[in-house]
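Quick review question:
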């Protein structure tokens, strides 16, 4: 009854198969993953519940399903006992990876923003030869271009942008508790998204770049004579959009350990190698200094 072959069949219909209202009820199919006790069975079932299930979902239900998954994980994360925690961390890793696989690797960018992009490029070309522009105006144009670029990413990758918004609303939200958050009165079935908790935040921050690297395609770029060849990301991948949740955590979290962990993830050497980030020589000036005692 507890074999992977038995659990992978009709049980997959009860996605995401975390643990239901009564996990001790062995007739409840939701108890399948909760009660799996063998490592190979846990891994096989977790992969079936993620990499086999999520890509097969209809497009119109994909985001609702992923949102329901993160609501369940955020709500019940603290109730997981230490014996079962590892397999759920593995399941969370698989869900981060399969979401990247569906929304990044198998992405389909729309052309809604092509016209805006051309207009912005034409405006930039026209302004390059005007030396009379002031530095302040130039900075304003650069800020506007960055904002337009972010909006273009959301317009070209609406499915990915919608998923990133779910992550920012839930597990990677900078706030632990939001007193202003209330159920949507217009939708009786609306369920507010739990924020965090920090243990879940740390896990997602640690695996975010790891799982992203698995779905990206690279090409080697020759460096200097003494440098090893660098890897450059192939295709059009909205890295700023993908890294936006980490940026918000680093800038807006009220807790220094969370900000520190997010900053470390954004300074990952792989992001520097891919040309997404530049290596910082000095530490951030806004870092808080701890009191070292009397000399």
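Suggested answer, residue by residue:
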């Amino acid at each position: 009854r507890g074999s992977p072959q038995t659990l992978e069949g009709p049980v997959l219909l009860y996605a995401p198969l975390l643990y239901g209202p009564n996990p001790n009820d062995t007739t409840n199919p939701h108890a399948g993953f909760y009660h799996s006790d063998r490592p190979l069975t846990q891994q096989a079932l977790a992969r079936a519940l993620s990499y086999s299930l999520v890509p097969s979902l209809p497009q119109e239900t994909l985001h609702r399903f992923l949102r329901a998954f993160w609501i369940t994980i955020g709500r019940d994360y603290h109730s997981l006992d230490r014996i079962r925690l590892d397999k759920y961390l593995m399941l969370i890793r698989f869900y981060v990876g399969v979401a990247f696989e569906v929304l990044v690797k198998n992405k389909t960018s729309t052309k809604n923003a092509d016209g805006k992009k051309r207009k912005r490029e034409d405006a930039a070309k026209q302004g390059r030869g005007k030396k009379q522009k002031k530095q302040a105006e130039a900075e304003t144009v650069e800020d506007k271009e960055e904002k337009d670029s972010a909006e273009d990413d959301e317009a070209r990758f609406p499915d990915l942008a919608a998923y990133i918004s779910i992550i920012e609303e839930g597990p990677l939200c900078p706030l632990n508790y939001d007193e202003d958050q209330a159920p949507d009165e217009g939708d009786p079935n609306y369920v507010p998204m739990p924020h965090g908790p920090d243990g879940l935040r740390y896990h997602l921050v640690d695996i975010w770049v790891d799982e992203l690297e698995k779905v990206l395609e690279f090409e080697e770029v020759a460096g200097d004579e003494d440098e090893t060849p660098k890897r450059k990301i192939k295709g059009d991948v909205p890295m700023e959009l993908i890294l936006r949740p980490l940026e918000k955590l680093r800038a807006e979290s009220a807790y220094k350990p969370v900000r520190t962990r997010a900053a470390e993830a954004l300074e990952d050497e792989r992001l520097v190698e891919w040309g997404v980030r530049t290596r910082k020589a000095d530490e951030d000036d806004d870092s808080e200094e701890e009191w070292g005692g009397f000399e």
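Why it works: Confidence is low (pLDDT under 50) at residues 1-23, 25-30, 112-134. Strands lie at 218-221, 230-233.
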